[in-house]
Amino acid sequence: MTIINILAFLLTYLAMEGVAWLTHKYVMHGFLWSLHESHHKPRHGIFEKNDFFFLFYASIAMVLMYFGWEKLDYRFWMGIGVTAYGFTYFILHDIFIHRRGKWLDKLDSSYFRAMRKAHKVHHKKMGKEDGEEFGLLLFKKEHLHNSGR
Ligand SMILES: [Zn+2]
Ligand SMILES: [Zn+2]
Q1: CA of 5 to the centre of ligand 1 (A)
Q2: What is the pLDDT of residue 146?
């Protein structure tokens, strides 16, 4: 694995927080609100329409990995970066914050508590407009300062 591949992986992973933030703010709370709306309402059943966005990112990752497959070049590692971020997002956002499983209930540190708090602020708004805290791993510092229970 060359340095370029390591950088491709790391930069893609980090960039995905920005991409996720932008998509959440301008697409999911924009013209695709009809798909994301389900996530701001109580969930019925295992899946929600909002899960479509996972498929969207998974297909981007697969295209990248497909084109980088032969030489396992930077495109392949960018695909791995997108996948790794998607996995992180699923674990932290869906399992830990929204408790689609109970496995992570014991995950406890001021950072994770603050992340959950910040995301709950996002969910305070049931509607499409005037949202806050569209990211996941990055959020306003104030949540760290008062993340006690
Ligand atoms: Zn939202
Ligand atoms: Zn959420």
Answers
A1: 32
A2: 67
